[in-house]
Write a structure and sequence with these properties.
Elements (H helix, E strand, L loop, with lengths): L4 E5 L12 E5 L1 H11 L11 E7 L5 E7 L9 E4 L7 E4 L1
Antiparallel strand pairs: 1-2, 3-4, 5-6
C-alpha cells in the first residue's frame, strides 16, 4: 500500500527529541489518485450490447460513458435492474 501522508518537523524541532512536534498532511491530489486506482468500470460478462468508454477531461477528472446498443436488445425481453431500494425490479424493455 502506498503512503500518501507527508510528515514534517514543526517549529525547528529535532527528530526524536523530547516534545518534538510533527506536522502530518495529505494532499487532495494524492487522495484522488488512490481513489482512481480503486475504481474499475466495465460491461458485465456477455454484455455485448453494453460499452464503457473512459474519458479524462482537462480538469483531470475521469468520466465513464456507459452506452447500450438499443438495436441489440430483444424486443419484449424483461431486464432485471438493481439499485432502487433493496429489491430488484423487473422492467419491460
Amino acid at each position: 500500500m502506498k503512503n500518501i501522508a507527508t510528515v514534517t518537523m514543526m517549529d525547528n524541532t529535532v527528530d526524536k527529541a523530547a516534545n518534538a512536534r510533527y506536522g502530518v498532511g495529505v494532499s487532495k491530489k494524492a487522495v484522488a489518485n488512490i481513489a482512481k486506482d480503486a475504481v474499475e468500470v466495465k460491461a458485465g460478462d456477455n454484455a455485448d450490447n453494453v460499452t464503457v468508454d473512459k474519458d479524462t477531461n482537462t480538469e483531470g477528472k475521469t468520466i465513464y460513458k456507459v452506452s447500450v446498443a438499443k438495436t441489440k436488445l430483444a424486443a419484449g425481453t424483461n431486464t432485471t435492474v438493481g439499485g432502487k431500494g433493496t429489491e430488484a425490479e423487473t422492467i419491460q424493455s
